[in-house]
Amino acid sequence: MSRVAGTCFFGYVGGLIAIDVGVRHTRINEEMIYGTLCAYLFLGLAFAYLFSFVFGVQPEAFHGLERIAGYTELEMGTFIYFSFVTLTTLEFGDITPASSSVGALVYMEAILGQIYLTVLVARLVGLYIAQSVEPS
To answer: What is the per-residue pLDDT across 43-57, written as a single tens digit (0 to 9) for each?
Structure first.
């Protein structure tokens, strides 16, 4: 149950930050850029809890975890690692999806991570630079 709550919490807070940064502010400042980066980290944590939940329900949904000692009771750190490796599309290959449902989540996280960085963060940084060059 705590894994579902963690997924909901980090997803909700990350979404609130992203909406706050993307909609409510007209001037771009450093705090907005930091906020977008925090929302990116929250996205990774939300997926980590989601992967942890899936593992709790279906342990055979991942390849590579069986090499870890005591893999039936994995720590959250393993899923945080997997989530951020997926979010940044590094994909080392040490842990891979073994089921189509986890594969779909992995694809979704990888695509969201790249779109988030290339579209939102790059746009905010570009607007921030443009604002700082404009005469006041």
So the answer is: 999 999 999 999 989
Structure tokens at 44: 């990774």
CA dist., res. 38 & res. 19, Å (int): 12
- Residue 96: enclosing H or E segment and its boundaries? strand 96-97
Q: Running DSSP on this structure, what letter comes out for residue 23? A: I
- Which residues, in sequence order, are CB contacts of 101 under 8 Å at separation 6+? 54, 58, 61
> Which residue in this structure is represented by tokens 């593992």?
55
- DSSP secondary structure, 46-110, as one string: HHHHHHHHHHHH-GGGEESGGGSTTGGG--HHHHHHHHHHHHTT---SSSEE-SHHHHHHHHHHH
Rg (CA), the chain: 17
To the nearest whole percent, how much of the chain has pLDDT over 90? 39
The pTM of this model reads 0.84
Closest alpha carbon to 86 in 54, 43, 122, 119: 43
Q: How far is CA 20 from CA 33, 56, 112, in A?
A: 12, 33, 18
Residues 6+ apart with CB under 8 A from 89: 110, 113, 114
